[in-house]
User: What shape does this take?
Amino acid sequence: MDMNVLQAMRGDRKPPNFVGVATTGLPSRDELLDALRMVAGQARIQRGFQLLTEYVGASHYLLGRADLVQEADLDFVVSSDWPFDLVKEMAPIFAAGLSRLTEMEKCLQLFQPSFALLPDDVSVPDGASRQYCSLLFNIGRSRLSLVFLFDDGFILSSERLRDVGLLAGYFASFLNYGIIRSERDFDLTDRELECLFWIAEGKTSDEIAMILGISRNTINNYITSVMRKTATKTRSEAIAFAVRNNLV
Assistant: This one.
C-alpha cells in the first residue's frame, strides 16, 4: 500500500465526526491501516472489505463494478456479504440507479455518498436498516460501487466514509481478483476509439463519416456502442469519460 497515503492518514488525528452515536468498539484509523496492509499482502478481498465495513460502523457491504452494470443480472457484483436473495433482487435496481447518474454525479459520489431506501417488499438482515449508503471510487479505468447496510438507528460518520472511499481504492488496487479486468479495456474497437476522438474534437456524425469514409448511420452505431460500453448517456458524458480515462 502507498506509504505516502498511509503516513498522510496517520497524520490526520481529528476525532471521528459521529453525531449522536457512541464510537465505542469501532476500530481506529491506525488499526484499520495495519489490518488492511496485512490482508492486502494475502490477497484476501472479502476480509479487506469486511475491515472497511467494520471501520465505518456498517453491518454488510456489497462491492460491484459500476462500469459493468449494463451487463445486467449479477455479473457486476465483485464481492458481498449480503444475503444472496437480497443481492439478486437489488442488482437490477442498482444497475438502473447507476445508469441514471451523470458523469459528474458519479465523480462526486466519492466525496458525497448517496443514501436510499431498500424496497418494502425485500427482506433485510435482522436488525439492519432499510436505508443503505453507496459511494463510487476508481481503480485506474475501472469504477466500483461500494454499498453499505447498517444497523437501524445508526448514523454513519462522513469522515469515516471519506476514509473508506480513499482506502477502498488503494486496497482493491493491490488485489488480483479480477476487479480490474485490464484486458477488457471497455472492449472499445479501433473504429469506436476513432469516433470517440472525433466527437471529442467537436465533429458531427456527418463530418466523422466524411473523415473516415463510412456512412453516417455506421458512425452513429459506433457512438451508440461507445456509450453502452462506457455506461454513459450522452456524447458529452462519453467525452468526459474518455478524457478522465486517457482514451483521447
About this structure: Residues 89 and 122 are 8 Å apart (CA to CA).
